[in-house]
Design goal:
Oligomer: single chain
Order of helices and strands: HEHEHEEHEHEEEHEHHHHHHHHHHH
CATH superfamily of the largest domain: P-loop containing nucleotide triphosphate hydrolases
CATH topology of the largest domain: Rossmann fold
Shape: globular
Number of helices: 17
Radius of gyration: 24 Å
CATH class of the largest domain: Alpha Beta
Number of domains: 3
Strand order of the largest sheet: 2-5-8-1-9
Number of strands: 9
Low-confidence stretches: none
């Protein structure tokens, strides 16, 4: 049984997933209050909640029923999907997912990722949550199929004795996270994507790792999809000023223990400058000596100008790319220059006097 601090951090990851619209699944023994906590979150946030028991459903309850109208076939959505499509910020909670047969799990794939049931879109603001008991504790339970497992952030859920004690006395604990402003959130997401790009550039072998055992395949493992979830959740955690324990649980829940430990260590030790400071004074920027750090600098600068484009900011990136090309990394410079040229403001041209090393590379690559 975990401590109250572990429970608090896990609870905050859960509500971060809900806020960021990242599908999340709670794993825990029966009777741990998984359904109750989801109902409490929906009530606290005043959001419409649909609760579905997957173990008693059929594939068509998620995939829709075929219907022919005027010679055109369509998939008629279930009633719960129509209700969610008609509200803003709904929550879909699917319980006992791993006691659902494989055919039902397959029907859930599109619901979890694309938020589509039948021919009905549930709405981009709908949050998807699932719950499951470990197979050895579930009634006729299976391990999750890898395609379904890879669509979730996986959280281990149990109630510490203190939480149960206080709850039975009428004081069930709950937590909240601040709502970040749009600019702070976007900057945090850009920085996280840049850091993650640098990490995967240095460890490409961790981009996709399919576990060997069926049990491990039913939990978190790294793929481009789950690394994307890492970028979103870790960016939100930064923007909300949550502590490092929350980040560790979130990353672990997306990609599993080994890759999570490596990425957290890399992220905590990368020590990169703020891209806005580089854009303000590009000529004073000192190029890092590690290729992965250089990659992160380039990725963060490109994300920064996509978010806010001006001629001065665009030219500042050109100065940094010039430094990159002249410091012995022409391949990286050309890689980023492709997007840099594509993003240029109307009428802008590279300043050849400042780009002595980069311009010949761009000319040779037929980009200018």
């Amino acid at each position: 049984m975990g401590t109250i601090d572990d429970y608090a951090a896990t609870y905050k990851v859960l509500i971060t997933c809900v806020a960021a619209r990242v599908p999340v699944i709670l794993w825990g023994p029966p009777g741990q209050g998984k359904t109750s906590v989801i109902k409490q979150i929906a009530a606290d946030q005043k959001r419409h909640l649909e609760v579905i028991l997957a173990s008693i459903r059929e594939p068509q309850d998620f995939a829709g029923l075929p219907m022919l109208s005027n010679g055109v076939a369509s998939l008629m959505p279930p009633d719960w999907a129509k209700r969610l499509s008609e509200v803003d910020n709904g929550i879909l909670f699917t319980d006992e997912v791993n006691t659902a047969p494989p055919s039902v799990q397959a029907a859930l794939l599109r619901v979890c990722l694309d938020k589509v049931a039948g021919d009905c879109h549930l709405g981009d603001d709908t949050s998807v949550i699932a719950a499951a008991n470990p197979p050895e504790q579930a009634a006729d339970g299976w391990d999750l199929a890898p395609p379904l497992a890879n669509r979730f952030c996986h959280l281990n859920w149990d109630l510490p004795a203190e939480v149960v004690r206080d709850g039975l006395a009428g004081n069930w604990v709950s937590y909240s996270i601040p709502t970040p402003n749009a600019e702070k959130l976007q900057n945090a997401l850009n920085a996280e994507r840049a850091a993650l790009s640098g990490f995967l550039a240095s460890r490409p072998d961790l981009t996709t790792v399919l576990p060997k055992s069926a049990t491990e395949q039913g939990r978190a493992f790294p793929t481009p999809r789950s690394w994307e979830m890492v970028a979103i959740l870790s960016g939100w955690i930064t923007a909300c000023d949550l502590d490092s324990g929350v980040r560790r649980i979130a990353v672990l829940g997306c990609v599993g223990p080994g890759p999570a430990a490596e990425y957290i260590t890399y992220r905590e030790n990368i020590d990169l400058p703020n891209p806005e400071e580089i854009l303000a004074n590009p000529k004073d920027f000192v190029m890092p000596n590690r290729m992965d750090k250089i990659y992160v600098v380039g990725a963060s600068l490109m994300a920064a100008i996509r978010y806010k484009m001006t001629l001065d900011r665009w030219n500042a990136v050109g100065v940094v790319l010039e430094r990159m090309a002249s410091s012995g990394h022409p391949d990286l410079a050309v890689t980023f220059a492709r997007d840099w040229i594509r993003e240029r403001p109307e009428g802008a041209t590279p300043e050849k006097a400042l780009l002595r090393s980069l311009v010949p590379l761009l000319t040779e690559a037929k980009m200018i």
